[in-house]
Amino acid sequence: YSTINRGSEVLELSDEYWAMWDTIVQSELLVGRMLKFDMTIDHPHKYMLHYMRSLRDLFGAKEWAAMPVAPTAAAFLQDFHMSPKILDYPASHVAVCCLVLACEVYGTVVPLTEHADSSDNWYKVFCPDLTRDVHWDIIEDIISVYGAE
């Protein structure tokens, strides 16, 4: 209360106080439910930054800076936080799928993969346990965020 109403006196223990208290408790409970009461969350952002740095080294700093892949992948990740499905997958998988989707959107080919047997599996370096089916499930869930309004 004091943060929003600077300069105001301390709120008395009245009906207004208890109504605010109840609202805050209900909001905390809602956030807890959305997090499935797992308060120790491994955030995909730290993985994404590591993966972006590796890709930047692979592409070269100038070429990487000229491509919109990094900001687009970050936007996909930010938007995917609007869906509770983000909690269904490991953070490393979500991060790499956002990068893969951004590369697909812009038609970016990762260097040194054009001669590989399957050039679309370059992300296996980052997430060897990510299967193709789970990969596509995550990408579908990311895209579905944009269909819901």
TrEMBL record:
Entries under InterPro entries matching the protein: Cyclin-like_sf (IPR036915), Cyclin-Q_second_cyclin_box (IPR048053), Cyclin/Ssn8 (IPR043198)
Highest taxon listed in the record's lineage: Eukaryota
The keyword Kinase is assigned to this record: yes
Keywords (A to Z) from UniProt: Cyclin, Kinase, Transferase
Organism: Anopheles braziliensis
GO annotation, biological process: regulation of transcription by RNA polymerase II
GO molecular function, one term: kinase activity
Name by which UniProt lists this protein: Putative cdk9 kinase-activating protein cyclin t
